[in-house]
Amino acid sequence: DVQLVESGGGSVQAEGSLRLSCAASGYFSKRCMAWFRQAPGKEREGVAAIDTGDGSTYYLNSVEGRFTISHDSAKNTLYLQMNDLKPGDTAIYYCVADFRCWGLAPRYGYWGQGTQVTV
Predict the structure, then answer these.
(1) Cα–Cα distance for residue pair 95/109, rounded to 1 Å
(2) What distance in Å separates the CA atoms of residue 24 and residue 78, rounded to the nearest whole number?
(3) Strand runs (DSSP E) across 1-119, as ranges?
(4) Strand 10-11 vs strand 115-118: parallel, antiparallel, or unpaired?
(5) How far apart are CA 49 and CA 67, in angstroms?
(6) Which of 119, 118, 113, 104 is nearest to 7 (CA)?
(7) Strands 77-82, 91-98: parallel, antiparallel or unpaired by DSSP?
(8) Residues 95, 56, 27, 112: what is their CA dihedral angle, to the nearest 10 degrees?
(9) Which of 2, 12, 97, 107 is the most buried (most CB within 10 A)?
(10) Euclidean distance between CA atoms 55 and 27, whole angstroms
């Protein structure tokens, strides 16, 4: 069974930085991974995605230039480096994965439990 476990969330002041990690375990050959977030009272939205096959990345407009998604295939771990954080970035952040690539659409088949980020 595939498991995605996020870590690295927490509270930070505006303009601060955090790095989220997502460790994937179990049988795992998922090509595409992404980070989604959901703030209270708002819909879940895709923040950043990566095609681990060719390295293509996709970002939500409001985070481009501040957030960086990356993947370490040897460790089977996904990262999200978040810089210049703003109060609007406050949300629960979820790690997702799928064999198919969905970009920032919430159609991924595997979801982690989420980690809270508060700015």
Answers:
(1) 11
(2) 8
(3) 3-7, 10-11, 18-25, 32-38, 45-51, 57-59, 67-72, 77-82, 91-98, 110-111, 115-118
(4) parallel
(5) 11
(6) 113
(7) unpaired
(8) 0
(9) 97
(10) 21
